[in-house]
Amino acid sequence: MQAANPYQIGLDKTPANHVSLSPLTFLERAATVYPNTISVIHGDQRFTWQETYARCRRLASALQQRGIGKGDTVAVMLPNIPAMVECHFGIPMTGAVLNTLNTRLDAEAIAFMLKHGEAKVLITDREFSDTIAGALKLLEQPPLVIDVDDVVYTGSGKCLGEIEYEAFIATGDANFAWGMPADEWEAIALNYTSGTTGNPKGVVYHHRGAYLNAVCNILEWGMPRHAVYLWTLPMFHCNGWCFPWTMAANVGTNVCLRRIDARAIFDLIKEHKVTHYCAAPIVHNLLINAPADCKEGIEHGVNCLVAGAAPPSSVIEGMEKLGFNITHVYGLTETYGPASVCAKHPEWDNLTLADRTEKNGRQGVRYSMQDGMTVMDPNTMTEVPHDGETMGEIMFRGNLVMKGYLKNPDATNESLAGGWFHTGDLAVIQPDGYIKIKDRSKDVIISGGENISSIEVEDVLCRYPGVITAAVVALPDPKWGEVPCAFVELAEGLEGNEQAVIEYCREHLARFKVPKQIHFGPIPKTSTGKIQKFLLRQQVKSASAIE
Amino acid sequence: MQAANPYQIGLDKTPANHVSLSPLTFLERAATVYPNTISVIHGDQRFTWQETYARCRRLASALQQRGIGKGDTVAVMLPNIPAMVECHFGIPMTGAVLNTLNTRLDAEAIAFMLKHGEAKVLITDREFSDTIAGALKLLEQPPLVIDVDDVVYTGSGKCLGEIEYEAFIATGDANFAWGMPADEWEAIALNYTSGTTGNPKGVVYHHRGAYLNAVCNILEWGMPRHAVYLWTLPMFHCNGWCFPWTMAANVGTNVCLRRIDARAIFDLIKEHKVTHYCAAPIVHNLLINAPADCKEGIEHGVNCLVAGAAPPSSVIEGMEKLGFNITHVYGLTETYGPASVCAKHPEWDNLTLADRTEKNGRQGVRYSMQDGMTVMDPNTMTEVPHDGETMGEIMFRGNLVMKGYLKNPDATNESLAGGWFHTGDLAVIQPDGYIKIKDRSKDVIISGGENISSIEVEDVLCRYPGVITAAVVALPDPKWGEVPCAFVELAEGLEGNEQAVIEYCREHLARFKVPKQIHFGPIPKTSTGKIQKFLLRQQVKSASAIE
């Protein structure tokens, strides 16, 4: 008989030594320790952490009075404004789940999400009233609608619901006694994937993961306390990579931004001495290509995170030239946003800009608080060799992986099969253990039996002068099976020269990877800026069918 | 009937999305992401994170070969040397519990701990062989003894066991497949309280708390990555406030130090550009009073944490004058070391040194990852008003509170009663919500019905020129019940002047708080530097009995 383990006797969890991990706790601390520190800046509006906490409690209290509680969904259709920050706390304070809706979606997609997520309340900004009105018409049981009539917003749109947000929260109690979740595994947020095809899936986050990712953002960025954070990244996108919660833990300042505009961004950076922001490659590109006078007069250090399946290395190079300290992160909606980081090494500072960019442009290594990240053969679930050549699928494991997909056990089980979350992204592991993405599995082009990474070709195209975006898809070919076909979007006013671009590719790519066709023109994107390759493929297919 | 909560259906924990929180994971990441970064410096020795990881795995493997596993205790009697860092990982990697022994204890106390903790293995440094030999003689079933014969140590002492540490870990596998704890509530460490009276209690830490406190140290300190950390704080003391794990998460460098010596400390700070260290007030005092030439030539920023129930404000003032950035933290063995911090406010920089010292010298507010800290009437369990006057007991709640006391359910239940950990420290809450300690509950002096904080009086005494340590206890008094009686330790070569000191106290204290007697001479301290007031009280009592 084995002796009893003395460390497991009389040492159970009690309310004194075990509390759920929840990012809500950071707000309470910010408000009590730094009550007068500015929490949110929006136009001429200023809130302190004490005020933000009181407003969140009012929101929670008002929602509870309307019967909202544990397991209910509250959807929001909001730009990056103070109400959006407040919803990240006030809604979970009731036990309910925050469902941020992508403001660029159409009525049908919104209606699908409201119905699938069973939203009981919808908080929506006047700017989106046309879309929302359309969506509500499609629902048999529309939610309670609360309108945000943002003082900073002067554009069109009307109030649709029965009460305005300020009036609504005024019905709540600023001293509302909210509680921590009884179990940290309880859901805190619901985020629908933008998915390039098919119905979106509802990714469910829990309090534990939101808490850990919020803290890990600070660790990976080496973020000092009281940062000034500019909201260039939509908060509806993976809960702004958990940064609403990060900023409460950091006791920093949220600088709101309703619309992406290069001049506005630079002006806010200068006015508020913004120290940190996150953005997709497309936003960084905007900043790089902004008029020179915008960029002048920034004396303080600015740190930025960039993520995307494949940020062209030109973005990293461009931001470095701008003097911003850029760090590359990688993740998916299913991993609370970034769950890996291209952790920098001091010795890279001695490399040439091009070599450093190559190093810094990789997907990198697991976040410190994620348990595992690797590249595996998805059939055998064995790790690929660290040779920089053998492709496999990127897999994550750990506390920064979603609970699963709402009401979709098949998709949940499939995505979490074998003890790892399957990203669908193809990559290699380089000899230093850093992961470099090659492609989405469905985007690989197979030409004469050889795999061609569409990302590699796109990266070369993006370095051609004047190219804003590039997308490469497979063109059916009788001899090779498939060959690369490129779509290229140029800066305004420029005209494309197919032969010159092909010649440029020949200089920088193996022969078989060079696109056989170049199409110039606008490239279709999803509402989150992802290129819709399936549309390009359809275009290519119908064209080749006609031929 | 209530509708089912859709967020709780088909969204269970899986190996892909739920992993135990354990600080062991930080070591693996440091070693794989930054294999060549220096992990440990000890004299002329240098280890990289890759090497430290391999050594920890060898240690774990070698222990496992000796039958060590889940729930077993491995005790260590080690100074701050590389082996001590390694024990913080290698021992828990087997599922066993690390029991660090206070190297200043005597044989009897060590024997008590080895017996109570049921240590199966003892890893001990040659320096302590006399004490350990004595302790082993007191045991019926002595543990397996492994000697560390540290190359840096040239003093006396002999090897007692059957194998030396280097030879022992050489029997282990550098690729040992260790596992994370199945449950993050599993014990990781056992720390005996030094207690000023009675048998020590065995405080049990779990992986979850060690992980969270390790991370929280980084948050509270605003610690940048790759810090250089000097080991002035004993690792045997609350596992060095969890900093062995913090430094792995930080991918920083541990600078070892076998013995406290002011010149050695300043030399290491200069040689290795030490950025961070922690220490008790007594160590800081040593540095403040060190010869001027020691202090010259430090050009880089040095950050330090100081903790102790009552660091005299003179320490904070002295360190500031030295140009070091000092932060005051507070906690107990039961809270993994510090669990509160006197979080600074930028506007305090504009105060006078004395006012800023007053602000910075408080126990402050909860650590960001601790759930609660307050001051309550222990009878009614209600919070005292934030008036800076009403005394109550400091209470903590959250994930940075121990599992409990090993094999001591009564003490565990008592200390965690009412959902809060009772510290036994008396304090007030100031109007800004910051907590300021007044005394240990048993150290308060009640004079004519008025409470006198011994700490307040000691603080004044410590500001008198030449005073190194001061301790104030109650002297029985026929008229007032009790009056303050002071014990004062002066710098070497100085002689005490009772009237002058009493006069000084009159200038700085209310009349009834002024000590009626001043005794000059050495003050008895525990092995961790805590003043043994019970001995002083005995001295006072027997003296007054004789009178």
Oligomer: homodimer
Low-confidence stretches of chain A: none
Query: Percent of residues of chain A in beta strands?
Result: 15-25%
For the report, how would you describe the main beta sheet of chain A? 9 strands, mixed
Helix-strand category of chain A: alpha/beta
What does this structure look like?
2 copies of one chain form a homodimer. The first copy, chain A, is α/β, with parallel strands linked by helices and 547 residues long. Chain A has 18 helices and 27 strands. Chain A has a 9-stranded mixed β-sheet with strand order 2-1-11-10-12-13-14-15-16, with helices on both faces. In chain A, strands 7-6-5-3-4-8-9-20 form an 8-stranded mixed β-sheet, sandwiched between helices. A 5-stranded antiparallel β-sheet of chain A has the order 18-17-19-21-22. The model of chain A has no long low-confidence stretch (mean pLDDT 92). At the A-B interface, helix 1, helix 7 and strand 16 of A face helix 1, helix 7 and strand 16 of B.
